[in-house]
UniProtKB/TrEMBL annotation:
Protein name as it appears in the record: Branched-chain amino acid transport system carrier protein
NCBIfam families: livcs
Function summary: Component of the transport system for branched-chain amino acids.
Keyword Chloroplast appears in the UniProt entry: no
UniProt key word Membrane: yes
UniProt entry keywords in alphabetical sequence: Amino-acid transport, Cell membrane, Membrane, Transmembrane, Transmembrane helix, Transport
Pfam families linked: Branch_AA_trans (PF05525)
Any Gene Ontology biological process: isoleucine transport
Cellular compartment(s): Cell membrane
Upper lineage: Bacteria, Bacillati, Bacillota, Clostridia, Peptostreptococcales
One GO CC term, this protein: plasma membrane
Segments traversing the membrane: 7-27, 39-58, 79-96, 116-134, 146-168, 188-209, 221-243, 275-300, 312-333, 339-357, 369-389, 401-418
Topology in the lipid bilayer: Multi-pass membrane protein
Length: 433
């Protein structure tokens, strides 16, 4: 294997591992349970909304040299700063990074050592994260060469055992009606497109450090690495969905998703299964924590023009995340989920529009679409929190979580007819902040 292909595989493995957090471990088996014999249909929907959106985000970020601000920039400098910062704070120290430690403790450590101190564990977890993240040039190699193979082996043992010796007969009657739609809904809820936008920064930085400085070459290699990651995710998600389908006559729609994967692992592998699951969860969460910590530090270092040093941000993120992780998974999700729900649709919209940026000459089309996505998202979150806004649930595709699509199309069309004072391609996004 020549150097370029080897680098693509290493970077692709790293991207796979940074995408595959503990949340991605628990969604597919539950989808298999409720889909039963139609698990492939549900899996197809999940794949489209999770891996599909993530690949689009990787492509958009690669076109923008891995800079989050450039992906968001044509919707306006102020929105790029606010939305980009919100993405990185949520994916960083407010939600995703603390959740990696909390999930590892709850799913991996507690079942093996119930008396282990959670504060001590969080300190150890983020000490390791700090050590493996402090040198940005080493992040991708550490994950891609060492941590991902171990994660794949552990996942492979679990999935292959479940295929060779299925736990039961698959339920011929699915528990839900719109199976493909439910798969789309669950894949969308992973919000991996946000992670893809952020993590592409780490990938681009790694490629530059490996000597790939030509812009078109970096885009091409990033996309190839994204395809490697996508293939890995397809295989793992498919295997986990099938495992869920094999216990679809044992569990119902009310099964706790975290307990489901624990029970499946224990049934397949016995007591050693607890160790294997702890290894899977630990590696999945650690690789995600490393990638997001590095991405967060690189983002804030860039938008402050280096006034905030990468090393200082990494240190601050690890300390803050260690503190927040002790609040527990449910508390972290409850606090941060509404913010993610507000910023995710606008990010998806700008990712897709960025891919066709050369065809969209008027920046006001970006602004109209993005601000409409934000408006619908804010109203949806307000409705979910108890402030009754009935019309928001009656919009097309609301049941899938896509009630923003039609308003966004209207906002984009209206914006395209408003004259823009800036010329497409002339905005200096690097000067954001």
């Amino acid at each position: 294997m020549n150097k370029t292909n080897k680098d693509i595989v290493i970077v692709g493995f790293a991207l796979f591992a940074m995408f595959f957090g503990a949340g991605n471990l628990i969604f597919p088996p539950f989808l298999g349970v409720i889909s039963g014999e139609s698990w492939l249909t549900g899996f197809g929907g999940f794949l489209l909304a999770d891996v599909g959106l993530a690949l689009l985000a990787v492509a958009a970020a690669a076109k923008c040299n891995g800079e989050v601000s450039k992906v968001l920039g044509r919707a306006g400098k102020n929105l790029a700063i606010v939305l980009g910062s919100a993405i990185m704070i949520c994916l960083g120290p407010l939600l995703a990074i603390p959740r990696t430690a909390a999930t590892t403790f709850e799913m991996g450590i507690s079942p093996l050592a119930s008396g282990f101190n959670p504060i001590l564990f969080s300190v150890l977890f983020f000490a390791i994260t700090f050590i493996l993240t402090i040198k940005p040039s080493k992040v991708v190699d550490i994950i891609g060469q060492f941590l991902t193979p171990a994660l794949l082996v552990a996942l492979g043992v679990l999935i292959i055992k479940g295929i060779v010796t299925p736990l039961g007969d698959i339920n011929p009657t699915p528990m839900i009606n719109d199976i493909f739609a439910e798969g789309v809904k669950q894949g969308y809820q992973t919000m991996d497109a946000l992670g893809a936008v952020a993590l592409s920064t780490v990938i681009i930085t790694s490629l530059a450090n490996k000597g790939y400085n030509d812009e078109s070459q970096k885009v091409k290699l990033t996309m190839k690495a994204g395809i490697v990651a996508a293939i890995g995710l397809c295989l793992v998600y498919g295997g986990l969905t099938y495992l869920g389908a094999t216990v679809s006559q044992v569990y119902g729609k009310d099964v706790v998703q975290t307990k489901l994967i624990v029970e499946i692992t224990a049934s397949l592998l016995g007591h050693p299964g607890k160790i294997i699951l702890a290894l899977i969860v630990g590696l999945a969460c650690l690789t995600t924590a490393i990638g997001l910590t590095s991405a967060t530090a690189q983002f804030f270092s860039k938008i402050t023009n280096g006034k905030l040093k990468y090393e200082i941000i990494v240190t601050a993120v690890c300390i803050f995340s260690a503190i927040v992780s002790n609040f527990g998974v449910s508390t972290i999700i409850k606090f941060s989920a509404p913010i993610l729900d507000m910023i995710y649709p606008a990010t998806v919209v700008l990712v897709i529009m960025t891919l066709f940026g050369s065809k969209i000459k008027n920046d006001n089309a970006f602004k109209g679409a993005a601000y409409m996505a934000l408006l619908v998202s804010v109203l949806t979150v307000a409705n979910n929190l108890g402030i009754s806004i009935p019309m928001i649930t009656k919009l097309p595709f609301a049941q899938l979580g896509f009630n923003w699509i039609v308003p966004v199309l209207i906002g984009g069309v209206v914006g395209s007819f408003i004259p823009s004072h800036s010329k497409q391609g002339k905005i200096d996004i690097n000067r954001v902040g």
